[in-house]
Amino acid sequence: MSMMIDPTVVDLSRLQFALTALYHFLFVPLTLGMTFILATMETVYVITGKQIYKEMTQFWGKLFGINFALGVATGLTMEFEFGTNWSMYSHFVGDIFGTPLAIEGLMAFFMESTFVGVMFFGWDRISAKAHLVVTYLVALGSNLSALWILIANGFMQDPRGGTFDPNTMRMQFSNFVDLIFNVDAQAKFVHTSLAGFVTGSMFVMAVSAYYLLTKRHQDLARRSFRIATLFGVISSIGVVTLGDALGFIDVNAQPTKVAAMEAIWNTDRNTVSAPWNLIAFPSESQGRNLFEIGIPYVLTPLLTHTETRVIPGINQLVQDAKPRIVSGIQAMVALEAYNKDHADTQALAVFKANEKDMGFGFLAMQYAPDQDLKNINTTNLPSILDKTAKDTIPNVWVEFWAFRLMVAAGFFMLGLFAFAAYHSLKNEMEKHPVLLKMALWSLPLPWIASEFGWITAENGRQPWTVYNWLPTFISASSHTIGYMAFSLVGFTLLYSSFIAAELYLMFKYARLGPTAHHGHDAAAAGGGMAGQPAFAKPSMDRK
Hints:
Radius of gyration: 26 Å
Distance between the termini: 61 Å
Shape: globular
Strand content: 5-15%
Number of helices: 18
Strand order of the largest sheet: 1-2
Order of helices and strands: HHHHHEEHHHHEEHHHHHHHHEEH
Largest sheet: 2 strands, antiparallel
Helix content: 55-70%
């Protein structure tokens, strides 16, 4: 029953997919956020008829278009990687995991891709109201893409809607409604979309701050700045709220993730409400925090919304896993017997009784790769249980600090948006150059927060590709180390070139601004006084 794959191949496969996903998600949040900001600006244009809002929509739409094109290029390869680098995973859950991805491609991505062309080139070909509908359809398509992708990811985090078939050795649909309404998927979708809105808001605010500091395109900059800050405040509050909801969900669905995320080693049953570790230096080898600064009475109500519920620590979760490993070994032994003889009803009955722990039997196989699990004797069983149980906990250091960096960036941006919105509504942003500079230099923060957010989510799921069902170490394809190293270098170079192209084009067109540049700043040449810069009619294909 050995399914072992070279650990180096598994590590390289994980690294390649992690880099692919993190590269891709440098483009995704801006796409999600910019679509609705563009729709908001265009709505104001259609309602008021003010030309400035059309110019705003076209200018920011040009920057959105650059990001969208490169984002599509980085995203297409990810779905192919499931088949090329994660063949066991694809075999095990392909019927379930592939369905939302197929729906995303057929419905959301096609809608988004079709209407994005009309949005760019249809300004003079369809009515203003029809163009506004198209812009909203692009925004809807972008966020529907995120929905279906996160439904697929939600199954990996909290597998609902599928059952294991011992005859095919695959997971199959049991309930499509459970799959799409998985609470983890729904909460993560709203959290991710709102994080995209924050990213779009920060992007528009930062570039607008640059214009205000350099006294260029000030009418467009003031209006864009105001829309972005208001959008950012609302979105940031939503991100925090949905982040709290995800924490509450994970307490029930992924206690190992929560324990690692908060560096909780020991279960404290005597404290009414456990402290929240603001700073900690976890030591996995010693099973404790070498240093910690905690805030008393915060963690329990923060995570459980009660003051009395006990949050299990890592050491307890390790011990709790051992009976499940024993049960999982029994399930694997029975499954092997049943696959040899499908008439063995006793083996099937034993498997069904222990089926929920089958993944823990898979997990134990890395410590008994050259022998059948049924031959494990009482002498080496304790060692296998200890090693396997420790593997059920994700990397605590990475999980703890990735989460805190995400949260710190999120709350900083909320405060920045709030101050900026207040002064923008008072029409006095130019009086606060420090705040404008802070807005400009905070541009990378939403991407940093998003990347660390995904690290928190995906590292916290380890050691599983499908939580408690399929371990990562047997999910990969059996490639050679040379092949994986070659493809890893190739993907890294390719995606780095995409990032370089994105940065070059974004900086170029953001500096040029919405006006025609013919060797001078059009804002300064007639009309740049008193906040009334001269705007040339924007063209979507102006170089």
